[in-house]
Design goal:
With about 290 residues, the protein is mainly α. Helix content is about 45%, strand content about 10%. It has one domain. It contains 11 helices and 6 strands. The strands form 2 sheets. It has a 3-stranded antiparallel beta sheet with strand order 1-3-2. A 3-stranded antiparallel beta sheet has the order 4-5-6, covered by helices on one side.
Length: about 290
């Protein structure tokens, strides 16, 4: 089993290295890089924006993309994503998976555009320290609303940790069957900036897009957490290494502050200890706002 994993990993790295080499050789020779929408093994993406995205209303149509039809094997989608993630930084883009039938996301973007939302302002105004402060202050507000009872919210959990095997934004409940999903190439080498380019939030207990960007910057700098999926009400991250067990409760507090539904509707015991148990194993972070 482990040998199969190593073989698959070596294959991904080998293919990604070839793509990077092809892209580099074309760049230094003055040739343009071909679009990555032709096949999984095609060259790196020509991510030249169609418009001046930083100073234009937000539109998903402004970004290059590759669409995977419904029913595409989950592993195939993730193999392509991983290759593009390796290639992204040197080529000035970050990949993100977005379900194509996300009406809520389109509605959120439309509302934000009407309110004068600016990608540029969201990025330039982002601060990891502001992200940290927001999570800390929001958690204290929630505890105060519960009568100051921090211990009952933390609670105790002695069950088996939930394992997040597959991303949920574009899969069914089993995590195996996929819906149509687009792999967008966002024109930034900084993964934490992606939520600025595909903004949502500001409804119910979901943070505003600008706050999300600051939180993402904080989590990227502290945990190397990379936004991987975005839909109208879901956001998921990839982390290279799960947190240590003694740090997992503090991280669970931050997750709860960012998305209370992660505990209130996403755990069996409604405790931070249960979420902390998951985070001590998880290489994926999942958030869903009702």
């Amino acid at each position: 089993m482990f040998q199969d994993f190593l073989k698959k990993f070596d294959q991904i790295v080998s293919e990604a290295s070839k793509e990077f080499t092809d892209a580099f050789n074309k760049a230094i020779s003055g040739n343009s890089v071909q679009s990555g929408s032709a096949s999984p093994s095609s060259a790196a993406v020509d991510n030249t924006p169609k418009v001046d995205v930083l100073n234009s209303p937000v539109s998903l149509n402004n970004y290059k993309k590759r669409v995977f039809p419904a029913g595409t094997p989950y592993r195939e989608i993730m193999d392509v994503y991983q290759r593009k993630l390796i290639l992204g930084g040197p080529n000035g883009f970050t990949p993100i998976l977005v379900p194509t039938h996300s009406d809520t996301l389109e509605e959120n973007i439309s509302i934000l555009n009407d309110e004068g939302y600016s990608i540029k302002e969201a990025i330039t105004g982002a601060s990891a320290e502001e992200g940290r402060k927001f999570l800390e202050e929001r958690y204290q507000e929630i505890v105060a609303d519960r009568g100051g009872d921090d211990e009952s919210l933390i609670g105790e959990f002695e069950g088996e940790a939930e394992m997040l095997y597959n991303f949920k934004a574009f899969t069914d409940y089993s995590g195996d069957k996929t819906e149509e999903v687009a792999l967008y190439y966002i024109p930034t080498a900084n993964p934490w900036e992606v939520p600025a380019y595909i903004p949502f939030g500001g409804f119910n207990e979901c943070p505003s897009p600008k706050t999300m960007v600051s939180v993402c910057k904080y989590w990227y700098e502290k945990y190397k957490a990379i936004p991987t999926t975005i839909s109208g009400d879901i956001m998921e991250f990839t982390v290279d290494n799960p947190v240590e067990r003694d740090e997992s409760v503090n991280l669970a507090k931050e997750h709860y502050a960012f998305c209370p539904d992660r505990v209130d509707q996403g755990t069996m015991t409604y405790t931070l200890s249960e979420l902390a148990d998951t985070l001590s194993y998880a290489e994926k972070w999942y958030f869903w706002w009702d």
